Amino acid sequence: MKKMLVVVAAAAGLLAASATSHAAAPSKIVVGGKPVQLVDPLVVDKGRILVPLRALADSLGASTTWNQAAKTATVRKWSETSTLIPGKNTAYSVKANQTHKVTLDASVKLVHNRVYVPLRFLARLYGYRVAASGDTAFVNSPLTASEQDTLYKGELAKARQFAMDKGSKNAHYAIKPIPYSHEREGFETAYFFPIGEANRFFLITDDTVSFYEVKDDFFVVTWQARIPVGQKDTDQLFMDGKVTDAAGIKPEIKREFFFYRTSGLVTSTNITAGKIDPDGKTAVTGVKRIVGDEVKEASGSLALALPGEVRAEATKE
């Protein structure tokens, strides 16, 4: 799935290409352990490895289109797009409703009516890791082996900590994200993990709730909605499904959640953890209140797992 944008990254770290005729492209690319079938060969241009874009789309789970009138190529993965112009060393990437100009280490080229791009480009956008051995470039998961062990098989609290640290910062959007709005005073961030799980969760950020899932080692947002402003009981509204502007398909999770919430106003921060049942009934297991740099209140446990809670995810799905 992720393989398409990856490839672009693959060969970049592979060779320190000098701009001489001695630079040679790898003859094989392996993505996620599977060889990529290349109809057209890789090429070297001024010491940089270029790869045929369209040939890689299927194996990478992305698609490409060519706009003959505009003379541009567009790559699509999840809800994200990147537009490239042959002859230019810049691309325009659209993610989470924001457009970014990306400078490439080589210009996009048309070779026998095929669009070629530098291998590093897609890896840079999506975070794949690249390695090389002999004549083969390997495109690997964005997660290291130890990170995979933690996320899929590790202790529940540690897996949740990893998901909280990495999820929202590195998320991709399967759907077009709804515009962010901040209409409440202060701030609030709350994670809702299904009991026993770490690889999927709801994240409430102020007035927006998002559902994250780990797909092929990427954190992907597959559903979003707004929680009405002016209501005090955000949890109850969320549990009752009283949301607006929903996008995507909301998962039906008929069980309790572990929650971890951080909220604050000016110099005051409140942290709470606990359990919430499908009817919205909450049992708090830990509280901490901080004013400035001073802890004013601390009771119970803020551990990222409930007492006696065990993982429901035995293996990577």
Automatic annotation (TrEMBL):
<feature type="domain" description="Copper amine oxidase-like N-terminal">
    <location>
        <begin position="31"/>
        <end position="137"/>
    </location>
</feature>
<protein>
    <submittedName>
        <fullName>Copper amine oxidase N-terminal domain-containing protein</fullName>
    </submittedName>
</protein>
<dbReference type="Pfam" id="PF07833">
    <property type="entry name" value="Cu_amine_oxidN1"/>
</dbReference>
<dbReference type="InterPro" id="IPR012854">
    <property type="entry name" value="Cu_amine_oxidase-like_N"/>
</dbReference>
<feature type="signal peptide">
    <location>
        <begin position="1"/>
        <end position="23"/>
    </location>
</feature>
<dbReference type="InterPro" id="IPR036582">
    <property type="entry name" value="Mao_N_sf"/>
</dbReference>
<keyword id="KW-0732">Signal</keyword>
